[in-house]
Design a protein that fits this description.
- The chain is of the alpha/beta class and 650 residues long.
- Among the domains are: 71 residues, Alpha-Beta Complex (Oligo-1,6-glucosidase, domain 2), CATH 3.90.400; 87 residues, Immunoglobulin-like.
- It has 23 helices and 27 strands.
- The strands form eight sheets. The chain has an eight-stranded parallel β-barrel with strand order 1-2-5-11-12-15-16-19, surrounded by four helices.
- Strand 8 and strand 9 form a beta hairpin.
- It binds 3-O-alpha-D-glucopyranosyl-D-fructose (OTU).
- The site of 3-O-alpha-D-glucopyranosyl-D-fructose (OTU) has 16 residues, from loops.
């Protein structure tokens, strides 16, 4: 596509670029710039077209892309070329991720490199290292209050250590995921400090107000993310004598992307880390990027335009680098973060499947798959060349992000059901074995979320305390069952560090005055390497869990039907304690895997004859891929043991 006006501007910009930019094998840069420039120009015009300095800002953006391209190493440029050719490389079933803190799983980035064999033992080849950048130590929000985007917290190491880790991972065919906290900075960031000193340029980087008139107008539509620890969305900064928008903690200042300089600064940060060898960038809190009075200030169209612009720019300089959208939003909104079109309006190749995660937890509490079936059926179809990040637990709280309409269709009263789930997972519902903790309780709306480790939430902690072998077995089965689904659903499975060993809550955070008001720290414990050693000891819980997950991960990697290329068919079941879906090899329709999961504590029967006609499993036996043997069907009926699952082929 050649559009004269935008191309005339490109020609003008190229003639003005710094002399040094004209060499260093820039042809791939220029061809990608030419291919993407009309889109970049159009998006920039939509967002900033009314500004007098539009052309100057466009020049600065292109110069940023060019300068970062010139820095990009030959290894990374080669990786870009390879990934441009095999652009669906990340949809393969071979990828399995783990999220961890470098100072809790290991001691720092250098030590983390020595701990990679544990990940490879399990079969993990995608490593999300939780935020490592410079933050005020006692106001860091677990690394999400960045004071310097180009400096690693000295406790964890240096930028060179990141580059060394990236190189080591690359040599092992592993991927590195790092966060870019795009929505806000710490109030200790240099930009915020300059704003505090009255520097107008940097005051324009944030949402600052002299009085409460506009903050009050914004507040009418904005929910509270941290209603207890940081009520409201604005903080009075006495030093500056202004109100600052702080959607998250009061020390996290929201960036104002209505100012193109903010976009260009953050684009430079994104490319800085891309050039350190990061394969995938987790863009934090992307739903909040654009604020508008009268709205919830989430999921605004301009937030999507910003992400399209960031993606188009990244494709010019570092096309092999992917984005993960961290958008914990309604099911109808979450798939929009893949973009409007897989090619012409792409945003993020990967998105957290927060809806599926919440639906899994509903099934754990209710011991049935009614809402899980309903929610999966109504999960929006995602774009091609994009995939889900499927997870059971992460470093954050669990929000019940499924849709009330689905809750009603599943036969529940939405408010009552949500209340039940919170009561269940915080252990206050009669006979609940869960040991979760409340988080984000909003006394005005009644809304609440919960936290806690996977093992403590499914009842392993209470079962161990009571030495109830049956309850221990049920908890272990549930942990494996949940992982069997994130490994087979379609997308990249992300395992939270410690969950493969049944790690329980750690309440040590309560002794830290800077963490005690945030129950998320209960499931951010220091990794217990002594416990990890038990994975080698037969009969231990660690051995059972680690061994089961390792086996499933190994099997997943062999099953081409588990690649995520729009090849999942939810199957209608005659028994709503079960979830069943069919995965089909895109290149061989006879290569199918039938996944069946039973969330009930009793064996459940599945009428195979009632499944969709496309299911070829109309035989008297099927192959259990996990056990490696054949299961006889009794009159076309499959019996699924309690809290168990099957991966079946013909
Ligand atoms: C994200 O949080 C991070 O994952 C959290 O760890 C940070 O505290 C937060 O941003 C601020 O950086 O949906 O899109 O419910 O789980 O705010 C933002 C609290 C997010 C967090 C939620 C989440």
């Amino acid at each position: 596509m050649y559009e004269q006006a935008s191309h005339a501007l490109l020609n003008d910009i190229l003639t003005k670029l710094k002399p040094g930019i004209g060499n260093a094998h820039m042809r791939h840069f220029y061809t990608r710039l030419g291919a993407n420039f009309y889109a970049i120009h159009s998006l920039f015009d939509l967002l900033y077209g009314e500004r007098d300095d539009f052309k100057d800002q466009m020049y600065r953006l292109v110069e940023t892309l060019a300068m970062r391209y010139m820095e990009r190493s030959p290894r990374l440029r080669d990786s870009d070329m390879a990934r441009e050719k095999n652009y669906n490389w990340f949809l393969s079933q071979k990828w399995v991720g783990m999220a961890l803190y470098c100072d809790r799983f290991a001691t720092d980035l250098k030590d983390l490199r020595t701990k990679l064999p544990y990940l490879q033992d399990l079969g993990v080849n995608l490593l999300h290292v939780m935020p490592i950048l410079d933050c005020p130590p006692d106001a860091s929000d677990g690394g999400y209050a960045v004071s310097d985007y180009r400096k690693v917290d000295p406790r964890f190491g240096t930028v060179d250590d990141v580059e060394a880790l990236a190189n080591t991972l690359s040599q092992r065919d592993m991927l590195l995921v790092l966060d870019v906290v795009v929505n806000h900075t710490s109030d200790h960031h240099d930009w915020a400090q300059r704003a505090r000193q009255g520097d107008k340029k940097y005051q324009d980087y944030y949402y600052l107000f002299d009085d409460r008139t506009l903050p009050d107008a914004y507040e009418q539509g904005m929910p509270e993310v941290f209603p207890l620890q940081a009520p409201g969305n604005f903080t009075w900064d006495a030093a500056m004598g202004k109100w600052v928008m702080t959607v998250f903690n009061n020390y996290q200042w929201d960036l104002n992307y209505r100012n193109p300089e903010v976009l260009i600064e953050m684009m430079d940060v994104i490319l800085f880390w891309a050039n350190k060898g990061v394969d995938i960038l987790r863009l934090d809190a992307v739903a909040f990027l654009w604020k508008k009075i009268g709205s919830s200030c989430q999921n605004e169209r301009e937030a999507h335009l910003l992400l399209q612009l960031m993606k188009d720019c990244c494709q010019v300089t570092a096309p092999g680098v992917l984005f993960i959208a961290e958008a914990i939003v309604a099911p109808s909104e979450v798939s929009k973060y893949f973009g409007e079109d897989a090619i012409n309006a792409k945003e993020c190749e990967i998105a957290y499947n927060a809806t599926f995660m919440a639906l899994l937890w509903d099934a754990v509490a209710t011991k049935n798959a009614r809402l899980l079936n309903q929610g999966v059926k109504n999960l929006p179809v995602k774009l091609e060349r994009a995939t889900w990040l499927n997870y059971v637990r992460c470093h954050d709280d669990i929000g019940l992000g499924f849709d009330d309409h689905d809750v009603s269709l599943a036969g529940y009263d939405p408010p009552k059901h949500r209340h039940f789930l919170i009561e269940y997972f915080t252990g206050r519902f009669a006979d609940s074995p869960a040991r979760g903790l409340l988080f984000g309780q909003n006394l005005k709306t009644g809304d609440a979320r919960f936290t806690g480790s996977l093992a403590s939430l499914v009842g392993l902690e209470s079962a161990l305390e009571s030495q109830d072998e049956h309850a221990i077995e049920a908890a272990v089965k549930t942990i494996v069952l949940l992982h069997s689904l994130i490994l087979s659903f379609g997308g990249i499975p992300l395992i939270y560090y410690g969950d493969a060993l049944g790690t329980l809550n750690d309440m040590a955070y309560m002794a830290d005055p800077f963490k005690a008001n945030d129950t998320r720290w209960a499931h951010r414990s220091h990794f217990d390497w002594g416990k990890a050693e038990k994975r080698h000891q037969s009969g231990t819980i660690e051995h059972k869990l680690f061994g089961a997950l390792k086996k499933l991960i190994t099997l997943r990697k062999e099953l081409v039907a588990f690649a995520d290329v729009g090849n999942r068919q939810l199957l209608p079941v005659n028994n709503l304690n079960l979830l069943a879906f069919l995965r089909t090899d895109a290149k061989n329709s006879h290569n199918k895997v039938l996944v069946v999961a039973n969330f009930n504590t009793e064996p459940q029967s599945l009428d195979m004859a009632a499944l969709s006609s496309s299911v070829l499993f109309q035989r008297d036996s099927v192959k259990d891929l996990v056990a490696g043997n054949r299961l006889t069907l009794d009159n076309q009926t499959l019996t699924v043991p309690p809290l168990s699952f099957y991966w079946l082929s013909e």
